[in-house]
Amino acid sequence: MRIGVNPEKNKNSQIQYKKHRIIIPVYIPESDDAYFMNLLAVFKVSMNSLLNTIDINNTLITVINNNCKKEVTKYVNSLLSEGLIDKHVIYKENYGKVFTILSEARASYEDFITIADADVFYFNEWENKVFEVFRNFEKAGVVAPLPSPHAALYNNVSLFGCLWGRPKMKNVVDSDSFKLFEEGTNNSKIFQDRKYNWKEKQYYLEHNSIKTCVGSGHFIATYRNIFKQIAILKPKYVFKQADENKHLDQPFDLLGLCRLSTLTTNAYHLGNTIPNWVKNYVFNNEKVRIPISNNKKIKNFNIYFFKLYIFKFLKVYKLI
Fold first, then answer.
1. How far is CA 245 from the centre of its chain?
2. Which of 45, 69, 82, 156 is deepest in the core (most CB within 10 A)?
3. Largest CA distance in the chain
4. What is the mean pLDDT of the chain?
């Protein structure tokens, strides 16, 4: 039997909504495999850099614990108890990246969702750089905080298949950004393919003297929060090649939004090692502000198939 009235009913406390949520899935199991040995240290470095570079007034952090070892759970709980993160989701088994991200993103009210791996090192003002792109390019649906010209044609049918406003092409990315990307991915040929050396020229857009590189990768990217408008498809596997394409990336292209990135590197892929320069990085502790809301009106996606025809035509005749 209930006695009395719940005192919370009379408080009329308002929920304070913020603009940006960062979702970080983590998988560091109990394992003797050398690959996992240093990942907790890497994760701590990653979280420290994140907490030193975000707008704490407008940004929330969710950590998804995919059945990690006890030390990881204890560390994330300490972040939660100190009020440094907003949410700690714990799964009893590893459900992978796509399943857990979709579950959280669809349940989020923030205007923008950053999806990041647990081994990202964040540079000063990375949020400012990302939202500068959103602020100046209304078609931006996904923005990475580091140039990704090699991914320009990936799920950018809505951009390249358009009859107007197609990207321009020249060298707009500084060479140091390429070096950092190659080092972090341990792939010296990532910017080379059969047609282009992406270090020499990149597709880009320009508006109000602001330029953005066309293309976005996966280890960190910020999405407009339109996940509730995407058809719910249940992932079948913990990890399957192309699942991110099917569940996270192509739906944005279908809705007429494009994938872009900043011209400079504002995040670094640590992998399972910590470079010396990371240990000596100086955070400026400047106040970051996110002066933008997600008021994008999503158009009917049926025009996508017309753009896809144009996109394929341009590729066949090597015009892009």
1. 13
2. 156
3. 76
4. 88
